[in-house]
Amino acid sequence: MEKLDFLIDYLLQENKKIKIEKMPSNLEEKKNLWRSLCNIRNAKPISNEYLKVEKEYLQEELKNKIVTNVEDIKPIFDKICLWKGDITTLSIECIVNAANSSGLRMFYSLP
Known about the structure:
The chain has helices at 2-14, 27-40, 48-63; strands spanning 68-69, 90-91. It is mainly alpha-helical. It has a two-stranded parallel sheet. The longest helix is centred in the middle third of the chain and has 16 residues, at 48-63.
């Protein structure tokens, strides 16, 4: 949990506008806070130290997950596969999400 604490503290120090009344004490709440801070962070350079700790943390998290290899997914057509689950556990080269913001297929009107 030390790495996660570092990541949270770094992001909070980076953006002084964010105020946390009470730091979460359990692991899941800390993970949620860290993900939230990552999601609202503007795209800009970040320190090599942060990147190193983040990589180590994510590698540790990955060890606790079951990874699905693309060879284990049966194609529905040619090399096109459908799979439902946590995309962070896929060992694959490309993921395509063709849904629009409403989560539905794309709708086109032809002239």
